[in-house]
């Protein structure tokens, strides 16, 4: 863990004190790095945008954010660079990388609001190559929002909603913006969730009603049966 005296401080560190973890390697065209490095050399040779690091040993640090600035500093041959020391925790690393735009923030689909679902899908539609090309957002948002997603273990059920998001690249794209924290599936005889009940066929609903000892007419409609079982 970083010492409390350093966390949050702006330090001028020697570049050879800092390591770039393999998972932080950036995929940026050489043109951008080399051109930025030349600009840095021609000016005051100071990275006014600090590199975000965590302490990994005595006088040793690892990059956790603004890896592009680190790459430019290395290319420019800087001896020392400005850094901010960040708390050594997964939560701090995630926030740092999201704010540095090195990681896409994800929405918990198990509990996401309708607006959050729409916003995430709109983001995917705007990406290069548009992984959701041809998907009607209004339809997709409605069906995902109305589904019993609080019980989903994976995102696979999205492909069964007939909302245009099929298995393959479209379904895989959702993993960039969504994650799940599923609730335990209730015992079928105790199901009262409207979303789950609506997913059952009428003969399954009747069997469930029979197990509970509920009375209904033989001509009962599905909507009425769902309402009865939800009480």
How would you briefly describe this protein structure?
This protein has 231 residues and is of the alpha/beta class. It has helices spanning 30-42, 67-76, 90-99, 114-125, 137-146, 169-173, 194-199, 202-212, 222-230, and strands at residues 10-14, 18-19, 51-57, 60-65, 80-85, 107-108, 178-179. It folds into 3 domains: 10-99, Conserved hypothetical protein from pyrococcus furiosus pfu- 392566-001, ParB domain (Alpha-Beta Complex), CATH 3.90.1530.10; 107-179; 188-230, no CATH class.
Amino-to-carboxy terminus distance? 52 Å
- Counting DSSP E segments of at least 2 residues, the number of strands comes to 7
| Spans where pLDDT lies below 50 across 5 or more residues | none
What is the name of the CATH architecture of the largest domain?
A: Alpha-Beta Complex
Number of helices: 9
The outline comes out as elongated
Structural class category? alpha/beta
**Main sheet, how many strands, which sense, barrel?**
5 strands, mixed
| CATH H level, superfamily name of the largest domain | Conserved hypothetical protein from pyrococcus furiosus pfu- 392566-001, ParB domain
Spatial sequence of strands, sheet with the most strands: 1-5-3-4-2
| Run of helices and strands | EEHEEHEHEHHHEHHH
What does this structure look like?
- This is Rho termination factor.
- The two termini are 52 Å apart.
- Helix content is 37%, strand content 13%.
- Strand 3 and strand 4 form a beta hairpin.
- Helix 8 packs parallel to helix 9.
- It is elongated, with a radius of gyration of 26 Å.
- It contains nine helices and seven strands.
